[in-house]
């Protein structure tokens, strides 16, 4: 089949022809689309690597190959077209099939190009959902700000005015928090671990706990730190790791019941540093665990709004840990609390 491509390459001496053939094969094999070249009777002159994979694929692609053959038949009768085709899976895959003649003479044959649009369509869906979610999340506090400001303008009672002003301030903080989290998430996704340094995990955890403790005390929640070793280091972006710990510990505090505690435990083995955050709060239903790292996903919508959550915290954690080639795991029972564990590669040569 591949040898037949020589028939559509310009003439010349044998070495030139061989060079043209190999160059054309290499160029067509390097593209992401499937490329078929058919003769005037519909036989296949050439198929690049992606096209061969379609020809040899499992039964789900059989319908796609039928659609390609039908497009070729139509083209050989002078009806060139562009058509969409979907394999509904799961997972769903989307393709577009285009046909054109070889040069300007249909008698030479037909070129068929098949483009897999699956990833592109998935990204478009993610972008649309992201814009819709951001719009929804911002609309509520911005609408509240307008209503509160309008009420404040016509209110004379000092105590009521103060209460309205406090609510305006809270809604403004909520908008600022959403924007800050969006900027963090965008930066983590685009930059990776940008600023690498030697980070003491116990020191970092103590800083985060000191930051969160005042809010925890207001909720009557204590935060305990347990260290297996004070000399535990990783190589990483301190800002991203701090953000990950802050979101994990803050999340545990927010969803803990009054007069309970949150435990932060740091341990290590020869290759990994593990940070466990354990709470005894409301827990996570099993059906929701797989989705909690999605942007804007909330297990308890009402409680999340009450606590000021943006729905972005765990997504930030996931990206920050992924940027450090780490992993995160969750163990939770509804009504009994949750344990989040992040595992990070240990600094080479450290803790020896």
UniProtKB/TrEMBL annotation:
It is an enzyme of class 2 (transferase). One of its GO terms (molecular function) is phosphoprotein phosphatase activity. One of its GO terms (biological process) is cellular response to phosphate starvation. It is found in: Cell membrane. Its cofactor is a divalent metal cation. Coiled coil: none annotated. CDD domains: HATPase, HisKA. The keyword Transferase applies. Its main location: membrane. PROSITE patterns: HIS_KIN. Keywords: Kinase, Membrane, Phosphoprotein, Transferase, Two-component regulatory system. It catalyses: ATP + protein L-histidine = ADP + protein N-phospho-L-histidine. Residues 133-348 form the Histidine kinase domain. InterPro entries: BphY/WalK/GraS-like (IPR050351), HATPase_C_sf (IPR036890), HATPase_dom (IPR003594), His_kinase_dom (IPR005467), HisK_dim/P_dom (IPR003661), HisK_dim/P_sf (IPR036097), Sig_transdc_His_kin-like_C (IPR004358). Its EC number is 2.7.13.3. One of its GO terms (cellular component) is plasma membrane. This is Sensor-like histidine kinase SenX3. It comes from Acidithrix ferrooxidans. The gene is senX3.
């Amino acid at each position: 089949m591949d040898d037949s491509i020589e028939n559509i390459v310009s003439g010349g001496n044998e070495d030139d022809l061989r060079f043209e053939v190999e160059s054309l094969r290499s160029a067509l094999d390097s593209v992401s689309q499937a490329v078929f070249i058919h003769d005037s009777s519909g036989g296949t002159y050439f198929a690049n690597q992606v096209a061969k994979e379609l020809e040899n694929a499992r039964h789900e692609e059989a319908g796609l190959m039928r659609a390609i053959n039908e497009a070729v038949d139509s083209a050989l009768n002078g009806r060139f077209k562009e058509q969409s085709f979907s394999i509904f899976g799961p997972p769903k895959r989307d393709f577009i099939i285009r046909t054109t003649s070889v040069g300007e003479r249909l008698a030479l044959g037909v070129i068929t190009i098949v483009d897999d649009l699956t990833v592109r369509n998935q990204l478009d869906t993610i972008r649309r959902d992201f814009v819709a979610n951001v719009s929804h999340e911002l609309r509520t506090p911005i609408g509240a700000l307008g209503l509160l400001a309008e009420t404040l303008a016509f209110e004379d009672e000092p105590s009521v005015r103060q209460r309205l002003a406090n609510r305006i301030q809270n809604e403004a903080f909520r908008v600022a928090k959403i924007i800050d989290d969006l900027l963090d998430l965008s930066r983590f996704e685009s930059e990776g671990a940008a600023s690498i340094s030697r980070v003491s995990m116990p020191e970092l955890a103590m800083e985060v706990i000191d930051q969160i403790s005042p809010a925890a005390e207001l909720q009557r929640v204590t935060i305990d730190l347990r260290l297996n070793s004070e000399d535990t280091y990783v190589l990483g972006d301190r800002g991203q790791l701090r953000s990950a710990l802050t979101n994990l510990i803050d999340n545990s505090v927010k969803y803990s019941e009054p007069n309970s505690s949150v435990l932060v435990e740091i341990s290590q083995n020869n290759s990994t540093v593990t940070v466990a955050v354990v709470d005894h709060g409301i827990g996570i239903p099993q059906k929701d665990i797989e989705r909690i790292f999605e942007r804007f996903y909330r297990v308890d919508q009402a409680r999340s709004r009450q606590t000021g959550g943006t729905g972005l915290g765990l997504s930030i954690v996931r990206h920050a840990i992924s940027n450090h080639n780490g992993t995160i795991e969750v163990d939770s029972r509804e009504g009994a609390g949750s344990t989040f564990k992040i595992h990070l590669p240990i600094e080479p040569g450290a803790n020896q």
